[in-house]
Write a structure and sequence with these properties.
This is MaoC-like domain-containing protein. InterPro entries: HotDog_dom_sf, MaoC-like_dom, MFE-2_N. Pfam families: MaoC_dehydratas, MFE-2_hydrat-2_N. One of its GO terms (cellular component) is peroxisome. By secondary structure, the protein is mainly beta. It has two domains: about 5-65, no CATH class; about 80-195, Roll (Thiol Ester Dehydrase, Chain A). Helices cover about 15% and strands about 40% of the residues. The chain is built from three helices and nine strands. The chain has helices at about 90-95, 105-110, 120-135, and strands at about 5-15, 20-30, 35-45, 60, 80-85, 145-150, 160-170, 170-180, 185-195. It has a five-stranded antiparallel β-sheet with strand order 5-7-8-9-6, with helices on one face. The longest helix has 15 residues, at about 120-135. The radius of gyration is 18 Å and the shape is globular. The two termini are about 35 Å apart.
Length: about 200
């Protein structure tokens, strides 16, 4: 099967000293034109803000309003907790995905950006969190996953331990991932499921 990706700017937000760009990518089956999936990502652009003439920050977006607010993590005990260790070479390995941003490999660039050393790719952190949901809630069935949403809260350094807490509510799994060594939340979001594993 051959795939065709089409990307477009779905949102642009003036945050004053920075801007946030929302990118939508739709993946189609070549030939039939059947839409297979859609992904949304945001990029935080330091120093790119201040383009709005209004006294209020400019915001243009076609992003569903009910999906971009702060994630409300349940106050109850989690349904499951999963701990995983990232490797010191994790960011270098993840570069094989095609993301060659030097922030993840060059100590000098990381220092200029305000970090003590190169940081892990955000999507790699998201991958750890979703894998925790698949292992703990979906009993290893990746096909149970229908939709993924994540909000990045803080960076992760390669070699740190990730603890993902999960709350199953109906067909939605809320999750929060923390770095054990710093006791800081780095990611929060939810995973919608096509079906609930019968073992639960």
């Amino acid at each position: 099967m051959q795939l065709v990706n089409k990307s477009s700017l779905a949102g642009l937000h003036d945050k004053g000293k920075a801007a946030i760009a929302e990118i939508e990518t739709k993946t189609y089956e070549k030939g039939s034109g059947k839409l297979l999936c859609m992904g949304r990502s945001t990029a935080f652009l330091r120093g790119a803000g201040g383009f709005s003439k209004s006294s209020q920050p400019y915001s243009y977006s076609t992003y569903p309003k009910d999906q971009i607010g702060a994630i409300e993590i349940p106050k109850s005990l989690p349904s499951a907790v999963f701990q995983d260790l990232t490797q010191p070479s994790q960011a270098l390995l993840y570069r094989l995905s095609g993301d060659y941003n030097p922030l993840h490999s060059d100590p000098n660039i990381a220092t200029v950006a305000g970090f003590s050393r190169p940081i892990l790719h955000g999507l790699c952190t998201l991958g750890f969190a979703v894998r925790a949901v698949i292992k703990s809630i979906c009993r290893g069935d990746a096909n149970a996953v229908k939709n993924i949403l994540g909000r990045f809260l803080l960076h992760v350094y390669p070699g740190e331990t990730l603890i993902t807490e999960m709350w199953l509510q109906g067909s939605r799994v809320f999750y929060q991932t923390k770095v054990k060594e710093r006791n800081r939340a780095v990611l929060a979001g939810y995973v919608d499921l096509r079906h609930i594993p019968s073992a639960l």
